[in-house]
Amino acid sequence: MPSQSEVFDIAVVGQGIAGTMMAWFLYNSGKKVLIIDDNFNGSSSKIAAGIVNPITGKNFVCSWRIHDFLPVAIHTYDNLSKYLGIETYVKANIVRALYSAVDENTWLSKSCDPLLQKFMMPLADISEFEGKVKQQFSYGELRGTFYVRMAEIMEAFRDKWLINDQYLMEKFHYQSLEIKNDGYEYKNLNFRKLSFVKAIRR
């Protein structure tokens, strides 16, 4: 249970993907952070695929600012792995279906582009998938791709912060929130700032 005598710099209400990462970056910047969340089983964050794919669209172009994003993402997830003691992401190539000769020609042409060849391989060998998928015209293969184990990250993060008394596991009751001159009070817990990172529930 978080200490009622401690003043947190910020309370993050909601621990989905956004809330978890926000709390992580704030914590790493030296802030005292409290998370308030009820571990809702219907959260879309728990079933998010977490696939990081640098090439997108039917024209096979780089995702926006992917060359800036990837080093930061890998560094972040490596640090999370050390902090949580789990494997936070898994490297895995992606096989992409090419539905026509036009798609195949576009793929082969783009795979020669210096900006794209880091991610695009020539046509893929899918012999191991024979009889398991509907056969398409041909296939391309992407490398430098990975998937993030978001459900495992959120669970391990919650468990660690519960132990460290930085997590209040309950549904947030808005009527219990009081606005003070120097911040906020919620059920005798005090914090200077408050951020709602909650999804809409239907």
* Largest sheet: number of strands, sense, barrel closure: 6 strands, mixed
Series of H and E elements: EHEEEEHEEHEEEHEEEE
Give start-end ranges of low-pLDDT stretches: none
Task: Measure the end-to-end span.
Answer: 29 Å
Q: Quickly give the structural class.
A: alpha+beta
Kindly describe this structure.
With about 200 residues, this protein is an alpha+beta fold. It has a domain at about 95-145. The chain is about 25% helix and about 30% strand. It contains 4 helices and 14 strands. The chain has helices spanning about 15-30, 65-85, 100-110, 150-165; strands at about 5-15, 35, 50, 55, 60, 90, 95-100, 120-125, 140, 145-150, 165-170, 175-180, 185, 190-195. The strands form 4 sheets. Strands 11-2-1-14-13-12 form a 6-stranded mixed beta sheet. A 3-stranded antiparallel beta sheet has the order 3-10-6, with helices on one face. A 3-stranded antiparallel beta sheet has the order 7-9-8. A hairpin with a 4-residue loop joins strand 4 and strand 5. The longest helix has 19 residues, at about 65-85. It starts with 6 loop residues before the first strand and ends in a 6-residue tail after the last strand. The mean pLDDT is about 90.
Essential attributes:
alpha+beta, 202 residues, three-stranded antiparallel β-sheet
List the helices and strands and how they pair.
Layout lengths: L6 E7 L3 H12 L4 E5 L13 E2 L2 E2 L4 E2 L3 H19 L4 E3 L2 E5 L2 H10 L9 E4 L14 E5 L3 E3 L1 H14 L3 E3 L7 E4 L2 E4 L2 E8 L6
Parallel strand pairs: 1-2, 1-14, 2-11
Antiparallel strand pairs: 3-10, 4-5, 6-10, 7-9, 8-9, 12-13, 13-14
